[in-house]
Design the sequence.
């Protein structure tokens, strides 16, 4: 059985680390603004929810879910779980946009950036991905 040693992963360079922090910071900023606008039921968000065929009563619960995901993503120990939930959340967005015939590139690009931000900051996560890719 093959094992992966994550203790011996080398730390990223300062440039890579700061690139990851900046990307993750922008992701968090977007998530916080989006979730707060849903929580306060800002009119554009309510209208957008209606246009996608959802009940207006779902705007605030979606904001709560997104805020919880943002909090998980912010905390280094739970950032990977936050990114997984974010991927699931935006996977639903892709499905809805496809169903409505709308462009769906944004949630895909957003989730990709969220993972890139983490990969730049967490050498163990990068080692895990490299291990899985090289193993095949």
Sequence:
């Amino acid at each position: 059985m093959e094992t992966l040693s994550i203790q011996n992963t080398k730390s990223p360079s300062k440039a890579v680390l700061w690139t990851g922090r900046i990307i993750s910071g922008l992701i968090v900023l977007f998530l916080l603004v989006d979730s707060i606008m849903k929580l306060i039921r800002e009119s554009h968000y309510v209208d957008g929810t209606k246009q996608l065929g959802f009940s207006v009563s779902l705007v605030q619960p979606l904001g709560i879910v997104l805020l919880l995901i943002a909090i998980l993503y912010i905390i280094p120990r739970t950032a990977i779980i936050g990114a997984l939930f974010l991927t699931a959340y935006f996977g639903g967005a892709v499905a809805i946009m496809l169903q409505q015939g709308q462009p769906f590139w944004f949630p895909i690009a957003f989730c990709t950036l969220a993972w890139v931000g983490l990969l730049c900051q967490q050498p163990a996560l990068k080692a895990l991905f490299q291990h899985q890719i090289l193993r095949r």
Notes: The CA atoms of residues 71 and 82 lie 8 Å apart.
